[in-house]
Structure formats: C-alpha cells, structure tokens
Design a protein that fits this description.
The structure holds two protein chains of two kinds. By secondary structure, chain A is mainly beta. Chain A has three helices and 24 strands. In chain B, the strands form two sheets. In chain B, strands 1, 2, 3, 4, 5, 6, 7, 8, 9, 12, 13 and 14 form a twelve-stranded mixed beta sheet that branches. A two-stranded antiparallel ribbon of chain B has the order 10-11.
Chain lengths: 329, 290
C-alpha cells in the first residue's frame, strides 16, 4: 500500500478545544484532536487556492481522505512518527510485551503472565519503526508523551484588555492549555493519491483554536504496518478512534471478517466539534479510543462484516498484530 | 508564496511579557516556550490593536484587521489578519571586549529563515553550523569569546548566507551605530547553551511598594520582576487569514501604521518598559512578502 505522511508543523503553538462550553474566567483544556480539525483546515486551504475538489461537509468527507492525527519528531534520521500504543502492551522491568490470551471454559481472556508486570504503563506512544518490530514479534520500545522532549503541554493565561486604557477588564482572565512542539508536530496519513496530490500544493494551514499557522509538508512513507497479517491468531489495534454500531464492540461481534474473541482497553471517547457552516455543535459520537485491541479468531460469515462509521474521516483504522496463547501449566 | 509579512521588534527598553505570579525565585517571570525555554511574547495582537486604535483612529479598519469587539453585543467577526507570537531572534549578553554581543543559535536561525523563506540559509545551517556546547561561532575575529562568565572557544565556520541574513536583520535597529554593531557583533552558540543563556541572563529587577504616609516599604511589598534586556531582537509573522478575500489593502494599512514606529508591548508601561521599534521585513529592498 502506498502511503503518504502529511506533516503539520506549528509555527508556535496549536490547541484544540475539548467538547464543552467555556467562557472568560474559565480554564480550557486542549485535548488530543480528532481528524476533524485537520479536514477543516485542509479543505479551507484548498478552497482558498481555488482547487477543483469536493469539499464535503460535516458529515461527508468529500474528496479528501486522511487518517490520524499522530505526532512526529524531526530528527537527524528523518521524521519519526509516533502512534498511540496498543493497550495490551505491558512492561516487565525494562522489557515491553504484548498480552497473550488465556483460554478458559467461559471464553478468552487477555492476560499478563508475569506477577511483577507494571499494572499500568506510562508510555502512551510507539514509534513507527518500533511498531514494525512489535508486529514481527521482536523486542520494541515505547514513548511517553509526558517525558518526550519534542512536545509539551503548555498553559497560557490570558486577560482581556480595555484597549482604550490598556488595563485588564474586571474578571476577564482565562487560561488555555495547548501543545508546543520543539521540533515536530502532528501528522496525518493518507493512502489516497488524489489527496496527496492536492495537499502537495499547500504550504500551510490555519489549525485549531485561535487559527494558529502550521506549515504543511508531504512525504511518502515506507511501512507495512497497515498491511493485513495472514496468520491464524491475529489481533487488530485501533490507531484512530472507531464508532461501532454496538458501542465498544461491533454488534456483529466481528472485525475484518473474523470473530472477536476478547478485547483490551476498549474505552469510550466522546467525539464532536463545532459545525462552522451550520453554526451549531456537531452530532456527538461515542467512539472507542485509539489503542483498543481486538483479539480475533475464526472467520465470520460474509454478511457479518462491519466497519467503523466515519471511516472516510479516518476513523476505525487499525494495525494488525499477532497474538499468542498462554501456555497451560 | 504565502501571503504574509514578517516584522522584527527591537527593544529600546526592557520588555516584560509576563505569565502572572509564580512561586519561584522570580515573582513575575516572563513568558517562555515550555519545550525550549526560549522567551516569547504571546499576546502581541492586543498591544498592536491598542497602538492601531490610538494612531489610526479608523474603527472600521481596526475591526477588519483585528476582529470585532466581543463586548459590542453585535455578531462577532474574526479579524482578517492572523498574528503569531513574538519569538526570540538575537539576545544581548555582556561581553568584556565588545561591551555586549547578541547571541543566537541554529534552532532560532532556522525558524526565522523558515519564516522569511530563506531556504538556502536553512540548508547552510543544517549542513554546516554544528556547534559543540563549549564552542561558539562569532561573526567577528576572536579565538575565545566571553558571554558574561562563560568562556567559549571560537570555531571558524564560514556561513556566508547566514551572515547576509544577519546583515538584513540589522536594519531593524533604530540607529546606524546599532545597525553596524549587529552586522559584526553576533555570536552563534549551541541550542542547549542558548536555552541556558536566555534563562539565566535576563534582567531580574527588585521592586518595592512604598507606604505613602510613612514613606517606608509596605510589609510584603517586595517582589522580583524578570525582563528581556534592552536591545533584544524578536520577530513575529502576520498572515492574511483565509477569510481575507478582496481585502488585500489591510496588510498594507497595518504595515504602514506600525512600520518604523515605537510601540508599547507587554506590561509595566508606566515605569518605562516595553518600548519596541517595529520593522517590516523586506521593506528596504523591495522584497516585501505580502
């Protein structure tokens, strides 16, 4: 599969509002964004350039196809892309492992066989090349966003001024948290050639709240992590949120044409936003958060195939990985 | 090319763009990037709006450029120009041979070169400006350079494009003497050392509050404020927003109002702080980017 990385490198900072109301004298937390603000920013930039494409709307993706966002760091070895870590990763000492599955009479359970395994790991991202190693069953490393040097959450305190007198208005103080990259930014991926062609003509976009300027670059990425694995014991893990008909698990209890045996880290994530065209909030979806792992078994019936909603907006994209059975005794 | 204009700021007095009260040694520190600790001024738009309002007196243009006033009660409109925060470019540091020199680093220069579309400078710095922590690259002849109490060994790397860029930056200084000084008295240091310099070599000033009746210091009335030193050079970028169709003259209006003028940015105006000269990049060589 041909894949391109669309790299969004903020000129200074970039922030994304959480899904709740806010006002002056309030604290607004910036959250890790969904793909929606990136779609909006790219569409606006293309429309501004008078490009011939279908911009879609809040419910229809139109011509553009991207998934993400993930984060990246510029290094002397090139751009390092980091994905959310699968929730079945645990740590014993300095070694990272993925949970094997314990088969019981009642069904299947993901299990940490080591007693001294960390109950919750701090690492929340995994670099692309490490993800490739994990898929192959080799040793791998993970990254903690909290300790990563190239990105930090920063808080800004703002005041509203009486511009005639240049003094603060009473009670008009607020604080906003946002992302500051040292040498990197957000990255969206696309396997759509038309999208890559259109975006290659953009130098930058205004992104997130306060319309911060973000430089845009596109590069081809060579990786096989999104290719299906032709193995018997296969799991998939979400790298972007997914909206399934049944909530955390598709109501068909199948994914990629196989039956779901068990899951790890299926958590609810509210997804919404502001519809600029209609000047009203978008529909709220209860999505499954990235990192959720679905252990898969036998093939399902053909009519039981199910995908995430909003797939055109990049929801429900996963990486295939192998799972192992916990040995008995 | 993007529709943008870069502006340089030259500090005529110390500048305090604060974060509010902190519990550290300095009560009122300045704003910094969390990842690099480089000084920034985030709220530059408000100060420029205040200057524009007083000097242009064109309320309609003010709203077109900066957006509507949320207090007006009418439907709000976004501004047609978009302002970045102000970032550090050249930081003045005491030096026994030159009285003071301006210090910068490859990361700062690359960011600025990106803002002014100097791709060749970015390439030159990335390929050649590898500077160790205990070394520096002065634009003047020297074997050793002292930055306050730090002694650095000078390395001889030829960066002609970067030197030309710094010569262009020198135009932001308000007088020829300082313009000529910037052309020669700049030292490029390692990114990490630069971060330490801009953290430890800012000016920290004690202030007191006097009881008007007793003429003594009020209890608890002592605090420390941090300032960017006089002669600091910063820059910011103004872009036409995507909603700026048919309003090409707005950038020109804004530019002609602020270019070459002394503007107050940041706090402590009444004690003489925050006076900066604004220079529109490319104005003298007809290379303006808007």
């Amino acid at each position: 599969m041909k894949l391109w990385g669309i790299f969004f490198e903020p000129e200074d900072w970039v922030g994304f509002r959480e899904v709740r109301s806010f006002s002056f004298s309030d604290r607004v937390e910036s959250v890790f964004p969904t793909s929606f603000p990136f779609y909006g920013a790219v569409r606006t930039a293309l429309m501004r350039r008078g490009k011939d494409f279908d911009p879609g709307d809040s419910e229809r993706a139109g011509t553009i196809r991207m998934f993400g966002p993930f984060i990246f760091e510029n290094t002397s070895d090139g751009k390092k892309i980091c994905f959310p870590i699968p929730k079945n990763v645990y740590k014993v000492g300095d070694e990272y492992k993925t949970m094997p599955v314990l088969e019981t009479e009642e069904g299947f359970l993901p299990w940490k066989p080591e007693l001294d395994a960390d109950s919750k790991i701090e690492e929340d991202f995994i670099e692309l090349r490490e993800l490739e190693r994990m898929r192959k069953g080799e040793s791998f490393k993970a990254v903690s966003l909290k300790h990563a040097e190239f990105v930090a959450r920063e808080t800004r305190v703002g005041i509203a001024l009486e511009t005639d007198k240049k003094r603060a208005r009473e009670r008009m103080i607020y604080s906003i948290s946002y992302y500051r990259f040292r040498n990197g930014g957000f990255v969206m991926l696309t396997d759509d050639e038309r999208t890559a062609e259109l975006i290659s003509e953009i130098e930058g976009v205004f992104l997130g709240f306060r319309s911060r300027w973000v430089n845009v670059e596109i590069e081809e990425i060579k990786t096989d992590v999104f290719d299906p694995l032709e193995k018997e014991n296969v799991a998939v893990y979400l790298v972007t949120p997914a909206v399934f008909s049944g909530g955390g698990v598709p109501s068909s209890r199948t994914l990629v044409g196989r039956k779901i045996l068990t899951t790890v880290g299926v958590r609810k994530l509210p997804v919404s936003g502001w519809d600029l065209q209609k000047k009203m909030p978008k529909k709220i979806y209860h999505a499954v958060s990235p990192g959720a792992v679905y252990y898969l078994g036998d093939k399902a019936n053909e009519n039981e195939h199910e995908e995430s909603e909003l797939r055109d907006f990049g929801f429900g994209r996963y990486v295939f990985m192998e799972w192992k059975k916990l040995r008995e005794g | 090319m993007e529709e943008k204009q870069v502006f340089l700021l030259y500090a005529e007095t110390q500048v305090h763009a604060g974060t509010g009260f902190e519990t550290g040694v300095v009560d009122l520190p300045i704003q910094r990037e969390r990842t690099t600790k480089f000084p920034v001024i985030q709220g530059i738009k408000g100060a420029l709006r205040a200057y524009f309002r007083v000097n242009s007196k064109d309320k309609g243009k003010e709203i077109e450029i900066f957006g509507s006033d949320p207090e007006s009660g009418e439907e709000t409109k976004p501004g047609n120009l978009n302002f970045s925060e102000a970032k550090i470019l050249l930081f003045p540091v005491r030096n026994p041979d030159k009285l003071f020199v301006w210090v910068t680093c490859p990361l700062v220069l690359v960011r600025f070169a990106k803002a002014v579309d100097e791709e060749e400078v970015i390439k030159e710095i990335e390929e050649r400006a590898k500077i160790d922590y205990d070394k520096c690259l002065p634009l003047f002849d020297a074997r050793k350079v002292y930055l306050e109490e730090i002694k650095l060994e000078a390395v001889d790397i030829d960066l002609p494009k970067t030197r030309r860029l710094i010569a262009k930056i020198s135009r932001c200084a308000p007088i020829d003497y300082l313009k000529n000084k910037i052309k020669s008295d700049v030292v490029i240091v390692n990114d990490t050392l630069f971060s330490e310099i801009v953290q430890s070599m800012t000016e920290v000033v004690p202030r007191i509050r006097i009881n008007r009746e007793t003429k003594t210091v009020e209890e608890g009335g002592l605090w420390y404020e941090e300032y960017l030193p006089q002669d600091t050079v910063m820059y910011f970028v103004v872009r036409k927003s995507y909603y700026n169709n048919m309003k090409d003259s707005l950038m020109e209006t804004f530019k002609s109002t602020v270019h070459g003028n002394l503007v107050n940015i940041g706090g402590k105006e009444t004690v003489g702080k925050g006076m900066v000269w604004i220079y529109a990049w490319g104005d003298e060589d007809g290379d303006s980017q808007s």
